[in-house]
Amino acid sequence: MKILITAAGSHGDIAPYTGVGARLKDAGHEVALATHDTYAPLVRAAGLEFRRLPADPRTTRPAPPATAGHNPAPPSGSRALLRQAASFIQQLGTGLAQATRPDTELLLLSATTAPLGWHIAEAMGIPSLDLPLVPNAPTGDFAPVLNGGRSLGRWGNRAAGRLSLRIVDRLYAGAARDLRTRLGLPPATPRTVRRRSEGSNRSTLYGFSQVLVPRPADWRAGLVVVGNWWPWHAPDTRLPRALEDFLAAGPPPVYIGFGSMASGEGERLSSLAVRAVRRTKVRAILQEGWANLAGEASDGILTIGEVPHALLFPRMSAVVHHCGAGTAAAGLRAAVPTVPVPVTADQPFWASRLATAGAATTPIPFQDLTAADAVPRLAEAIIRATTDPALRAHTARAASRLAAEDGAGAVVKTVDLMAAHGARR
Questions:
Q1: Is residue 62 scored above 60 in pLDDT?
Q2: Other Cβ atoms closer than 10 A to 255
Q3: pTM (predicted TM-score)
Q4: What is the DSSP letter of 212?
Q5: How far is the C-alpha of 364 from the C-alpha of 342, rounded, in Å?
Q6: What CA–CA distances, in Å, run from 333 to 251, 258, 299, 387, 395?
Q7: Residue 51, class by beta-carbon neighbours within 10 Å (0-12 exposed, 13-18 middle, 19+ buried)?
Q8: Rounded to whole angstroms, how far apart are CA atoms 192 and 204?
């Protein structure tokens, strides 16, 4: 099949789909991935065709909508956030329509692109399959992931989940209306289209593990948790020589990084991280990320750029990070304890899940890093993560269960079945 994967947002929202796309390509499908210009090299390195989506978050810093896994740089004030989200979504609808060529036979949609991709699939008469990275369907088991992991009770959780969907519907309403007009479709609200999809028990494959989030029993048929999708990297990829030399020069260090979070706060966070590391007397690796972290030039601290977490994390004694869905899973996969410092969006949810699984210390909310006790608090968490045998044992058991899953393989099987039966939406 000629398949188009669409994904928008920051690195953690895009990279997992390169692994899915590479597996589909290996299975004989023609695969393109539509995303922002920043990730073109990542897409092409995986052997996939790159197609451009507008509003590149690395250059224009839009605010992705509430379904996205990350929110790189939220503006001040909820009204400003909503205006920026609406602008991002409007551009996204135009970009998705341009990226979907007439010969496309299947659309694979991330959570951010799905509310627009459904209209394109309808207009072109082709099937689509939703591939979210977070559990976004209402359930009594837990509150919406953007609620920070705070349960409201079974009734409250479901009510909050339905409200969350209505908010997303409103965010997409203008862009969906304009897109349907452009595509020659009759008027229909995002809520109508979503409910039509839910009523048909249409399949949705979720790219996270039941090790952290067991499938809710009250979910409708067709919602399937298949396991994580791992970012693609070449089989012969090696860590940079300077990094290998550092790793070989002493005991396993602690990783500290905030991914696409905390832009513009690099100086403050770097100072805090270095002081905490000095206090614990451990070696450390600081990953620059969007915050531009940078450590002191010394034998005990190394600053690095982008490297695959699949190769780096197993060499660490612990990992300190923002707990985006992909980074949280990568730490668990590597069987190293996490010190969660969640910033926003779904990150408190994943931080809480790691802690509940016994694979992480008590989360330290990012805003707490401005408190007077931030350095000793972070240092104490690092000491526990690197020395507590129970924490390491729980993490190892969870990693063993995670290793038995094949999330990308499940997507390939579903797509192959759709191709074999000539599925049409």
A1: no
A2: 26
A3: 0.91
A4: T
A5: 7
A6: 20, 18, 28, 19, 9
A7: buried
A8: 18
- Going along the chain from its start, the domains and CATH numbers come out as 2-228+405-420 (3.40.50.2000), 241-403 (3.40.50.2000)
Write phi, then psi, for 49 (nearest 5 degrees): -75, 130
φ and ψ of 358, to 5 deg: 80, 20
pLDDT tens digits, 400-410: 999 999 999 99
Q: What angle do CA 44, 116, 290 make, to 5 degrees?
A: 50
Q: Do the strands 284-287 and 223-225 form a parallel or antiparallel pair, or are they unpaired?
A: unpaired
Task: Catalogue the E-assigned strands of 288-398.
Answer: 301-304, 318-321, 338-340
Structure-token match 């390195």, residue found: 45
Strands, E assignment, 213-299: 223-225, 254-256, 284-287
What's the one-letter identity of residue 317? S
Do the beta carbons of residue 194 and residue 165 sit within 8 Å?
A: yes
Q: State the Cα–Cα distance between residues 202 and 106, nearest whole angstrom.
A: 14
Q: Is 293 helix (H, G, I), strand (E, B) or coil?
A: coil
**pLDDT tens sequence across 10-52:** 888 999 999 999 999 999 999 999 999 999 999 999 999 999 9
Side-chain-facing half-sphere of 411: CA atoms under 13 Å? 36
State the Cα–Cα distance between residues 195 and 399, nearest whole angstrom. 37
* CA 68/CA 1 separation, integer angstroms: 27
Using alpha carbons, list the distances in angstroms from residue 97 to 84, 191, 201, 280, 355: 20, 20, 25, 52, 41
236/234 Cα distance (integer angstroms): 5
User: Are 31 and 59 in contact, with CB atoms under 8 Å apart?
Assistant: no
Cβ of 39: how many Cβ atoms within 10 Å? 24
How far apart, in Å, are the Cα atoms of 121 and each of 110, 116, 210?
14, 9, 30
Query: Residue 67 — pLDDT band, cuts 50, 70, 90?
Result: very low
The phi, psi pair for 54, rounded to 5°, reads -75, 180
